[in-house]
């Protein structure tokens, strides 16, 4: 708990104090290869080049898409996040860190984000945060950044270079429409709301990514985190990143790239060239599968039972192996956990096929 | 002094498209205030008032009244706005009915473009209202801020075409509306709707409309 408390406490400092501590912590972060709760971009500059292609296998856990309302409004999603926290805290040995996949809040309300931060304080392992659209579009990330720091960062860990992106950048659809901040938030919060714009990583972040990766050799294994899948699956629900091809092009030279994403709330597997994609489960609710464009490698989970509020939900783990690829564990709360192994994606689905559910996803 | 302003009653398709405009202006009451230079008009809904120069007439007068009505009804384009937000499927195209010779004197023999437009608009309006409710925790009166679209974007995974069917979890045969009831009562914790409640009718309409083109297959699990 001690290291975790230290991480989280920084969130409640005022910004100046936080920056000061953060700057001081950079050296330590570089030395340990594992930053505090969030890492600033400057940390990467300090790290620079020279990462080894030798990976010490390690494991991290993930929790994603909790969509918290304030407890007094709806405690179901709160209880679900608590369950996930209990899950990751009960892992023995403890994971190296817990990655949070975005959409901590439902409507970006300060109280929702604060509640989420408070619950995540209980996570024993260090927590790494990623932003989702539900966290962002009320105040354009102000509260989220206050609590968790900058949303785009990278770090090295046991021979792997890890990058967290903000892939939920939307074009300004609200100004011309004269929307209030809450109207903008409500628009983005609707998965099937077509008024919003497609997600993207954006030019600025792509430039940062190129610079961030510049010092790493092609042999360095990469793990990239994005809230939306870094490919184009289904535009109408933003299971989509509009500049996915440009981002993929930046990652192309690396031999081993794993992208872990949130937003889709389901078992989702894909591979494009050298990039292996895995979705994260939500703690709040499962989404239906996109009606078209499903990646061939995806083994769809069978349909969730609406009469069981936890079915189709869960959390999971990522086992990073010596070759830099990952075994992705979907810890489905109401079902047998399922692992999509690296041999499956590496063989384009020919080997180590995960057990298919006995029923279709419907 | 009070006098009625009569609007020309044109029955063109274009005018039907502007039905809101007509509704707002068709029975506008003009009331002359004490001042001889300005006149106060009340819109047909009896709520809005607009003051214009006495000599204002014709299109200028209609525009002034319409502008006032628009000001007071910011959600007047709710049908178009909801269609834009949630990409509703359009009702079936009946334009073939206008082809060929039109019969006389019975319900299914004689159609005009106006008929088709009226059917479409009225049907679509019910569906659009359903979409509004489906996507709004507020309209569902959810006590936990949950709306239908949070699990069913574009009404996905609702499968109205499979009802009636034996709903295993309920232990009996269910209609689509039974499942809507169940969802409203449980995850949504909203207001329980009677089967003939206009909101229930609208929700059914929306869900059915979104599955347009799917083969009916009752009893399917």
List the helices and strands and how they pair.
The complex is a heterodimer of chains A (362) and B (221).
Chain A: H1 2-9, H2 15-32, H3 41-47, E1 58-63, H4 76-89, E2 98-100, H5 110-120, E3 127-129, H6 133-136, H7 142-148, E4 153-157, E5 160-164, H8 181-189, H9 203-213, E6 222-226, H10 244-251, E7 257-261, E8 269-272, E9 275-279, E10 314-320, E11 326-332, E12 338-340, H11 342-346
Parallel strand pairs in A: 1-2, 2-3, 5-6, 6-7, 7-9
Antiparallel strand pairs in A: 1-10, 4-5, 8-9, 10-11, 11-12
Helix pairs in contact in A: 5-7
Chain B: E1 2-4, H1 13-17, H2 19-25, E2 29-32, E3 38-42, E4 49-53, H3 58-72, H4 78-86, H5 113-134, E5 165-167, E6 172-174, H6 176-185, H7 198-210
Antiparallel strand pairs in B: 1-2, 2-3, 3-4, 5-6
Helix pairs in contact in B: 4-5, 5-7
In short:
The complex is a heterodimer of chains A (362) and B (221). Chain A has 362 residues and is of the alpha/beta class.
Label this structure with key terms.
heterodimer; A: 362 residues; alpha/beta; Purple Acid Phosphatase, chain A, domain 2; 6-stranded mixed beta sheet; 11 helices; disordered N terminus; B: 221 residues; alpha+beta; Cytochrome Bc1 Complex, Chain D, domain 2; 4-stranded antiparallel beta sheet; flat
């Amino acid at each position: 708990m001690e290291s975790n408390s230290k991480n989280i406490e920084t969130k409640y400092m005022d910004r100046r104090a936080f920056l000061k501590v953060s700057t001081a912590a950079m050296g330590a972060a570089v030395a340990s290869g594992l930053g505090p709760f969030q890492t600033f971009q400057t940390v990467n500059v300090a790290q620079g080049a020279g990462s080894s292609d030798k990976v010490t296998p390690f494991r991290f856990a993930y929790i994603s898409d909790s969509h918290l309302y304030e407890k007094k409004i709806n405690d179901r999603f709160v209880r679900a996040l608590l369950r996930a926290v209990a899950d990751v805290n009960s892992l023995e040995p403890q994971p190296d860190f817990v990655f949070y996949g975005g959409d901590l809040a439902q409507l970006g309300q300060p109280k929702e984000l604060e509640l989420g931060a408070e619950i995540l304080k209980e996570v024993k392992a260090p927590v790494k945060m990623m932003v989702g659209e539900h966290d962002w579009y009320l105040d354009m990330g102000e509260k989220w950044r206050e609590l968790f720091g900058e949303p785009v960062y990278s770090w090295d860990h046991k021979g792997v270079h890890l990058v967290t992106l903000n892939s939920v950048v939307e074009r300004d659809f609200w100004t011309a429409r004269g929307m209030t901040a809450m109207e903008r938030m409500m628009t983005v919060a609707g998965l099937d709301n077509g008024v919003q714009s497609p997600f993207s990583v954006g030019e600025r972040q792509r430039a940062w990514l190129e610079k961030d990766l510049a010092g790493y050799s092609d042999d360095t294994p990469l793990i990239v985190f994005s809230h939306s899948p870094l490919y184009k699956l289904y535009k109408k629900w933003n299971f989509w990143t509009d500049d996915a091809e440009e981002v993929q092009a930046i990652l192309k030279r690396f031999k081993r790239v794993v992208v872990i994403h949130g937003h889709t709330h389901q078992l989702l597997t894909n591979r494009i060239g050298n990039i292996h994609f895995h979705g994260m489960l939500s703690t709040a609710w499962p989404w239906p599968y996109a009606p078209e464009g499903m990646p061939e490698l995806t083994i769809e989970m069978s349909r969730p039972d609406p009469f069981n509020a936890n079915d189709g939900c869960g959390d999971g783990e990522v086992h990073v192996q010596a070759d830099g690829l990952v075994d992705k564990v979907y810890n489905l709360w109401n079902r047998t956990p399922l692992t999509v192994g690296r041999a499956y994606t590496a063989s384009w689905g020919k080997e180590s096929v995960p057990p298919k559910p006995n029923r279709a996803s419907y | 002094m009070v006098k009625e302003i009569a609007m020309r009653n044109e029955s063109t398709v274009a005018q039907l498209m502007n039905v809101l405009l007509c509704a707002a202006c068709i029975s506008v009451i003009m009331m002359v205030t004490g001042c001889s230079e300005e006149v106060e008009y009340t819109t047909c809904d009896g709520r809005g008032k607009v003051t214009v120069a006495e000599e204002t007439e014709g299109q200028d007068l209609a525009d002034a009244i319409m502008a006032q009505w628009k000001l007071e009804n910011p959600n007047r384009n709710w049908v178009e706005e909801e269609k834009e937000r949630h990409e509703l499927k359009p009702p079936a195209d009946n334009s073939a009915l206008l082809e060929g010779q039109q019969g006389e004197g019975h319900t299914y023999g004689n159609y005009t473009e106006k008929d088709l437009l009226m059917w479409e608009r009225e049907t679509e309006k019910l569906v659009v209202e359903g979409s509004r409710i489906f996507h709004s925790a507020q309209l569902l009166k959810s006590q936990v801020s949950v709306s239908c679209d949070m699990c069913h974007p574009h009404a996905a995974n609702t499968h109205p075409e499979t009802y009636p069917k034996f709903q295993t979890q309920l232990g009996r045969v269910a209609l689509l509306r039974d499942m809507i009831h169940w969802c409203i009562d449980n995850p949504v914790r909203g207001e329980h709707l009677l089967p003939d409640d206009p909101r229930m009718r609208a929700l059914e309409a929306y869900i059915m409309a979104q599955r347009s083109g799917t083969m009916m297959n009752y009893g399917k699990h």
